[in-house]
């Protein structure tokens, strides 16, 4: 299922996507929110209630918690899908659908029944589900953006019906020509109409409407794009018309659209089409369909709807060419054809002409038929119709104003407000029962927030090849190669400090895990954290990346990384040289990450074994929940001959302070199978009971959160640099790590890796100069170390302090807070006591 349709959901609003499923079919759907989260639920019309189950499993095995969402704002409707001849509803009928109440007010009057609530779908995650339908009916996908006060959301969506007999799919697509003011073809009617805006005194605005006549679905778009803005099931709606001002009112029970045709011919065509749908004059889809629907496969002869569509075309032609004799002849011939097609339904020429009447004076009888469009005579307009002119909040968002706001604000969005039912509130712990996070002077996240920064990810092409590693390691089998001096051509243009910063390429995985509305007993949160723990492995997926190693930082070297677009700031420091130890601290608005890593690399004849000591701690600032894990062992294979590649091995356990855990297992490859990339993750609860939620995928590509019937793609690997084979196998994220942007210019600590002269020369391709500078820096470091030893002193890190009494590579290093923290010193440019490294 590709070619997903883009939907646009206004702020403080919802959008309904309808689908009509036949008996014994499967509804197969996909949805992917773009950039921002959205609430999502799946319903069925009460009138069509029947047993509905998920494909390959019962509804109780759904991926997301099956808890009732906020009740939909709609009114009770009769079992009949026909309209009524006159208004008999209360005077506030249209006011009841004011968007001020959105999805939270009239539960007992709902004509939709919840099948499954998926709660919040997080941004950029593709979610796919299947539902088995035993008895056919009308279903609704509801996208709820009522929690967002100012920002519209875009969602990619697609649904299709699969029948067991033919496995044939019916695609819900809208194809139209935006440059054409009004057109009809086969089974669609399309034109521009005016649509009343949401707020009072805002008037009407132009929108493009497409009616799928076979499906009875009316959709609308802005005239300059193809994002779906709304959809109405015409057969299940009450359609009212006022020919005196060409206005149409469509009431689905969920919402009301107040429309106005731009001319009389358009108005006539829309009324005719709506009448055809509501009077069931549209021929039903065939029971067996071998080809996609088209105008040529709907029937062997012209249907009443097709004739009415053609009538619209001729009427337009007559209006545009009133003096043309040819048009008059075509008009007369067509009236004769229409009379023959209608047969006994047409009793006079006057009835036939009513289809074309620009004045529409003779159409009242058609409007007042039992199953057609309700006619609102100008002299008999009900009070309810007058009131709809005052209740403009029931129709549409102030879209143009909102679009302007978003352009000015960029990606800024109001913080969503979480909602819960009274039952959920009773079960949820009170705020005073939760651990309170520590607040420090650095919690302001300086230098965040920051204006967007331009970053160049590209790096120069590497024109040299690394030397054979065999001559350097054949005498050092089993030894730690980090202590062996290697030529600069064996390096890539990053340092180890920058290399371990690649763990932050996908911080949105953590934010999604902590902010997603999931229950602890589902295991989804711990599995999402596990996905983050594994995501940084993908930086090694290009096999060219495994031919070189990063520069070994000097003792006291630092590296900061601030990403205003990803919402984090990172500071790291090399705190020990022998053994090499690197300390990190990362802050975001909602969580912190801290880790101290001590990598070592040994050679075992045909492969390197890379192990990394040190625990990784991720803390939820709101709840105090802490997640811990360690880095997996990685094997660098085919060192002597063949294509070199990295392969993680063994198992990894991610633990939560609540008792939940995730167990990661890497697939084992055979002797001749090449690189093994498969990963499986299972979740365990506090009693070590395995949960039904799992993660499967490849560490080189993507991870999918699964149950039996639903799946979510929660992580996908980022892009590699163009021509990455000649650029060290870098990802685009890695390519930015050594760049000095406007945010860092003149602000960095003088010990920052970006300022290493040998690294800068090497990246620009001056290998000889880089080798010379590297040797000098390393010799200067030896001199400093000898001076400390002679004075009986030890190196003292500036931004981290050791916690514990054991070896420096077996404990944790804590970030120094307060006045002398890195970020406060950066703010004051207080660097006087730092070591001069170059």
What topology emerges from the helices and strands here?
Layout: E1 5-9, E2 14-21, E3 25-34, E4 38-45, E5 52-54, E6 112-121, E7 126-133, E8 137-144, E9 153-162, E10 169-171, E11 182-185, E12 188-196, E13 204-212, E14 217-221, E15 228-233, E16 238-242, E17 247-251, E18 256-261, H1 264-278, H2 304-320, H3 325-342, H4 349-353, H5 364-367, E19 374-375, H6 383-388, H7 399-409, H8 422-427, H9 470-473, E20 491-495, H10 496-501, H11 508-515, H12 524-535, E21 549-551, E22 558-563, E23 568-576, E24 581-588, E25 591-603, E26 608-613, E27 615-620, E28 626-630, E29 633-637, E30 645-649, E31 651-656, E32 661-666, E33 678-684, E34 690-698, E35 702-706, E36 710-716, H13 732-736, H14 757-763, H15 767-790, E37 800-803, E38 812-815, H16 822-828
Parallel strand pairs: 16-19, 20-21
Antiparallel strand pairs: 1-9, 2-8, 3-7, 3-9, 4-6, 4-8, 5-7, 7-36, 9-10, 11-12, 12-13, 12-18, 13-14, 14-15, 16-17, 17-18, 22-23, 23-24, 24-25, 25-26, 25-27, 26-29, 27-28, 28-31, 29-30, 31-32, 32-33, 33-34, 34-35, 35-36, 37-38
Helix pairs in contact: 1-2, 2-3, 11-12, 14-15
């Amino acid at each position: 299922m590709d070619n997903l349709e883009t939907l646009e959901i206004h702020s403080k609003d919802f959008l309904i996507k309808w689908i009509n499923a036949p008996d014994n079919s499967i509804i197969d759907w996909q949805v992917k929110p773009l950039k921002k989260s959205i609430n999502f639920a799946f319903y069925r019309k009460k009138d069509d209630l029947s047993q509905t189950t998920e494909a390959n499993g019962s509804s109780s095995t759904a991926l997301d918690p099956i808890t009732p969402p906020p009740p939909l704002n709609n009114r009770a409707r009769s079992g009949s899908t026909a309209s009524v001849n006159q208004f008999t509803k209360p005077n506030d009928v249209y006011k009841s659908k004011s968007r001020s109440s959105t999805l939270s007010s009239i539960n007992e009057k709902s004509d939709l029944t919840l099948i499954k609530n998926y709660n919040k779908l997080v941004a950029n995650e593709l979610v796919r589900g299947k539902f088995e339908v035993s008895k056919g009916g009308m279903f609704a996908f509801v996208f709820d953006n009522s929690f967002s006060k100012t920002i519209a959301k875009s969602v990619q969506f697609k649904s299709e019906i699969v029948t067991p007999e033919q496995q044939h799919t019916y695609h819900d697509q809208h194809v139209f020509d935006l440059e054409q003011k009004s057109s009809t073809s086969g089974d669609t009617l399309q034109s521009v109409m005016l649509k009343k805006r949401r707020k009072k005194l805002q008037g009407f605005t132009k929108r493009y409407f497409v009616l799928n006549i076979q499906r009875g679905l009316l959709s609308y778009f802005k005239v300059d794009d193809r994002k779906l803005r709304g959809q109405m099931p015409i057969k299940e709606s009450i359609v009212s018309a006022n020919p005196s001002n060409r206005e149409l009112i469509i009431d689905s029970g969920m919402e009301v659209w107040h429309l106005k045709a731009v001319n009389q011919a358009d108005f006539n065509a829309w009324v005719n089409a709506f009448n055809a749908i509501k009077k069931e004059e549209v021929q039903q889809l065939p029971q067996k369909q071998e080809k996609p629907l088209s105008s040529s496969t709907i029937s062997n002869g012209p249907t009443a709807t097709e004739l009415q569509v053609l009538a619209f075309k001729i009427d337009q032609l007559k209006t545009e060419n009133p003096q043309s004799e040819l048009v008059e002849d075509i008009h007369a011939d067509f009236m004769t054809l229409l009379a023959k097609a209608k047969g006994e339904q047409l009793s006079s020429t006057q009835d036939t002409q009513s289809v074309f009447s620009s004045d529409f004076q003779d159409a009242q009888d058609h409007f007042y038929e039992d199953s057609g469009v309700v006619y609102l005579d100008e002299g008999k307009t009900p009070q309810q119709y007058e009131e709809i002119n005052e209740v403009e909040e029931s129709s549409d968002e102030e879209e143009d104003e909102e679009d302007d706001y978003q352009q000015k604000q960029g990606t800024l969005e109001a913080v969503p407000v979480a909602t819960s039912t009274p039952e959920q509130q009773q079960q949820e712990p009170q705020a005073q029962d939760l651990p309170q996070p520590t607040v420090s002077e650095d919690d302001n996240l300086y230098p965040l927030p920051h204006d967007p920064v331009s970053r160049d990810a590209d790096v120069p092409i590497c024109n040299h090849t690394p030397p054979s590693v065999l001559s350097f390691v054949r005498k050092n089998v089993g030894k730690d190669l980090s202590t062996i001096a290697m030529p600069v051509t064996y390096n890539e243009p990053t340092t180890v400090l920058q290399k371990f910063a690649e763990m932050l390429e996908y911080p949105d995985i953590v934010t999604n895990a902590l902010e997603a509305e999931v229950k602890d007993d589902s295991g989804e949160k711990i599995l999402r954290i596990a996905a983050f723990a594994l995501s940084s492995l993908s930086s090694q997926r290009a096999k060219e990346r495994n031919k070189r190693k990063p520069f070994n930082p000097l003792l006291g070297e630092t590296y900061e990384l601030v990403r205003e677009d990803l919402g984090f700031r990172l500071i790291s420091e090399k705190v020990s040289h022998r053994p090499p130890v690197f300390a990190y601290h990362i802050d975001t608005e909602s969580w912190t990450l801290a880790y101290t890593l001590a990598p070592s690399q040994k050679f075992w004849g045909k492969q390197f074994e890379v192990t990394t000591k040190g625990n990784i701690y991720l803390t939820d600032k709101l709840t105090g929940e802490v997640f811990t894990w360690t880095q997996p062992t990685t094997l660098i294979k085919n060192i002597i001959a063949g294509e070199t590649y990295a392969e993680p091995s063994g198992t990894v356990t991610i633990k939560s302070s609540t008792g939940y855990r995730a167990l990661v297992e890497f697939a084992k490859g055979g002797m001749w199978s090449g690189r093994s990339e498969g990963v499986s993750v299972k979740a365990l609860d506090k009693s070590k009971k395995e949960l039904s939620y799992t993660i499967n995928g490849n560490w080189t590509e993507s991870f999918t959160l699964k149950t039996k019937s639903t799946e979510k793609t929660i992580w996908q690997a980022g892009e590699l640099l163009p021509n990455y084979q000649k650029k060290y196998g870098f990802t685009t994220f890695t390519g930015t790590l050594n760049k000095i942007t406007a945010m860092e210019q003149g602000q960095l600590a003088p010990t920052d890796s970006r300022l290493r002269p040998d690294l800068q020369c090497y990246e620009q391709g001056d290998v000889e100069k880089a080798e010379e500078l590297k040797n000098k820096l390393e010799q200067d470091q030896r001199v400093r170390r000898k001076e400390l030893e002679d004075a009986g002193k030890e190196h003292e890190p500036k931004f981290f302090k050791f916690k514990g009494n054991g070896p420096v590579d077996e404990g944790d290093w804590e970030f120094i807070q307060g006045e002398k923290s890195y970020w406060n010193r950066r703010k004051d440019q207080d660097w006087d006591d730092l070591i001069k490294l170059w």
